[in-house]
Amino acid sequence: MTVNHFGEDVAKDYDSGYTDMPVEPVVEFLKGLAGDGSALELGIGTGRIALPLSQAGVAVHGIELSPQMLRRLAAKPGAERIGVTTGDFATAKAPGPFRLAYLVFNTIMNLTTQDEQVACFANVAEHLEPGGFFVIEVGIPDLRRLPPGQNYYPFAVGQDKLGFDEYDVANQGQISHHYKIVDGSVRIVSIPFRYVWPAELDLMARLAGMRLHERVNDWDRSPFTSDSRGHVSVWQKT
Hints:
CATH class of the largest domain: Alpha Beta
Keywords: Methyltransferase, Transferase
Number of domains: 2
Organism: Kibdelosporangium phytohabitans
Distance between the termini: 27 Å
Domain Methyltransferase: 40-132
Pfam families: Methyltransf_25 (PF13649)
Number of helices: 6
GO molecular function: methyltransferase activity
Radius of gyration: 18 Å
């Protein structure tokens, strides 16, 4: 992922889009795996998870491609305790080793090719200590929403905002289009993704020398079922 899709238009409103998402269950889950070790966040962004995890006593280092997101992280209290490496988290190197590495809220999908996603797992394995954990939170591809012959599905409809996903099913591609009215003008942001299946992630982990340790529906560890819309998966370095 060498193209920064999280420029100023995205970064300035990023935190406001997550105000209704509690971070406490995420921090508790990650802290339990990190123990007395350190953690590496891939795609640290504005520090939505890294800052409270650091405040909970875990040493955190982050990798981030977007300088606009990093500027917002740097302006927040406690940011001085977090190390940052600027670069593509599929390939960038950070000073390790780490007990824990993690990717939250579909960030693995920002890598838009299978090769990049495979490289990410290999990069994580290089950074983990033996027995270390890799955590990914990501949605289940919800292709059942698509009527036959249709490749678009709306995810947000409001007075000042419209959002829809565009699917390329043959290549597991997805583009999220965001239209927002700001001061009478329409602002358009389109971000590409590659959706990925749980079994595919497990194979990527095996190629990198990791094995599935746990898969649950959410950070509260409710069971993962056929009806789950997403999952939190944990792999352990062998």
